[in-house]
Amino acid sequence: MGDVMIVTGGGRGIGRATCLRAAAAGYDVVVNWAHDRSAAESATERCTEFGVQAVAVQADVADESAVTAMFEEAARLGSLRVLVNNAGIVQPQQRFDEMTVDRWRKMLDVNVIGAFTCAREAVRRMSTRHGGAGGAIVNVSSAAAYLGSPGEYVDYAASKAAIDTMTIGLGKELAEEGVRVNAVRPGVVTTEIHASGGEPGRANRVAPTVPMKRPGDPDEVAAAIMWLASAEASYITGTTLDCSGGR
Question: What does the pLDDT look like over 147-163, one tens digit per residue?
Fold first, then answer.
């Protein structure tokens, strides 16, 4: 059995691009999905074309028992070496004073508690403290964490700021246990997440505010994720890499 990478939200966008790069690098891949089975199965099929094992596993990361079951499924493929905490949601663009507590709870359940739960399960399997062989966690944050997303997604921005802080603390906590923890902060990227917020064309609208004057491509972010997961980043932990075109 080989080295395994779990990519949450692996069926589309940045997650899909990461799965394909992982498979090309020789990882067996767990393509996590919550709602879009066909996208996850398509990504899984593409991964197997690289001659590796790949499996699509349904799990809402906000559901602790589902996350645990996903990690158990991953163990059937081989030894977990990388977790990419990519799953996340936005909700319709809204002013902060129009938002509801239910909206905030859903946002934090998926974007924060979901990422925390997945990271915890990865640590329990990878840390030398628990008998593991080490590994890497790469969290997918967002430039929204420092921009704030006023008038659109203040709650999303805050959830990603929590991921940045977790990355720092957990990276230091695990530094002597063979597990590196880093994050990538994408800027405006052409993915389906903008449609979830009610504006499918948002990436192109915002592009003029990016110093490079264009939105990013999911594969550009996936390249950064894979570098942080690789041995080339062996002396890097607790760090967040901006991948935002200079924004």
Answer: 999 999 999 999 999 99
Tens digits of per-residue pLDDT, 26-50? 999 999 999 999 999 999 999 999 9
Residue 156 catalytic?
Answer: yes
The enclosing H or E element of 242 equals: strand 239-243
Strands 135-140 and 28-33, bridge-based pairing: unpaired
- First-to-last alpha carbon distance for the chain, in angstroms, is 42
> Is the CB of residue 36 less than 8 Å from the CB of residue 59?
no
Angle at 72 between CA 66 and CA 77, to 5 degrees: 130
Q: Residue 210: name the closest of 191, 182, 232, 186 by CA.
A: 186
Q: How far apart are CA 7 and CA 78, in angstroms?
A: 15
Among 155, 132, 135, 128, smallest CA distance to 144 is for: 155
Q: Mind listing the domains of the chain with CATH numbers? A: 2-243 (3.40.50.720)
pTM above 0.85, yes or no: yes
Alpha carbon 20 to chain centroid distance?
14
Residue listed under structure tokens 């809402």: 60
Q: Mean pLDDT over residues 229-235, rounded? A: 98
Spot the catalytic one: 27, 146, 153, 156.
Answer: 156
